[in-house]
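Q: Is it fine to ask for two folds in a single conversation?
A: Yes, each is treated on its own. Send the first.
Q: Here.
A: Result:
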Amino acid sequence: MAWLPQASDELGFFEICGISPTRTTFQDITTDAEKHSIITKELFKTSQSISFTFEIESIVRLHPQTWHLSLTPWKTIPGHQVAFADLHKVTSNPASFSNDLAETESQVLDNFKVGSVPYVGALFQRIDVPPGSVTPMHRMLTLGYGVIASGEAELVLDSGDIRVVKQGDTVVERASMHQWKNLSRTEWLRVIWVLIPILPVEVGGKKLEEEFKG
């Protein structure tokens, strides 16, 4: 199930839309790195203090020299409140298989901040949110394709629109102000994202920026 809300948030940033590598133009996105770090550090400040350890799944890939299938090794992530796992990223469009594998497959998190989205390319990411956790209202300057892998949550827009999303549901997030509420008191929420950089966006003559309302 995909969400297409009746009421728009600003420019209708939550909507079903398509993207074609042949039609999409990417430019350098002017962002404040320090502000991004503050945003991502504070984003899940209200999360419960639950410590955990889990492993990132191996990724099947073709070796660029031999073109033989192989698996990347399992990686264990130390416990913290919320886990951000950058599973893979590409820094070109179309993607190049000639890139150093270490540059694309060693993007596993430190559990304290969201990984940076490349100016050109895409970021494949997984986020785990603790039971009962509520995030601040926040905005990221990306086009995000999200799949609820497990759990149940309320997705809330600053317009007041609320939609309950469950396992298997999909979301297209277009740089809108939003927050997540994990509705379970016992189960974690897991969301899988593919994040793509966007061109600068202006609303009412004001350039959108990454932000959070903590």
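Q: Second one now.
A: Result:
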Amino acid sequence: MLSTGDVLSTYIYRISLGGSGTNFELSTATNFLLNAMGLVVVLVANKFVSKLDVQGIL
């Protein structure tokens, strides 16, 4: 399975704590990009929902 696809979180874990040496710089940069992508998704979803002009569930 690993030869065909990989999840970004497990890739970060493998390169930071893997048995073949550690690469903290790459794992930190990759984790930063993962979190930045999550922030972009949240901000885009927030803009989309605010354009719908709905009250919400609360």
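Q: Anything structural to flag on that second result?
A: Two points. The chain has a mean pLDDT of 83. The chain has two helices and no strands.
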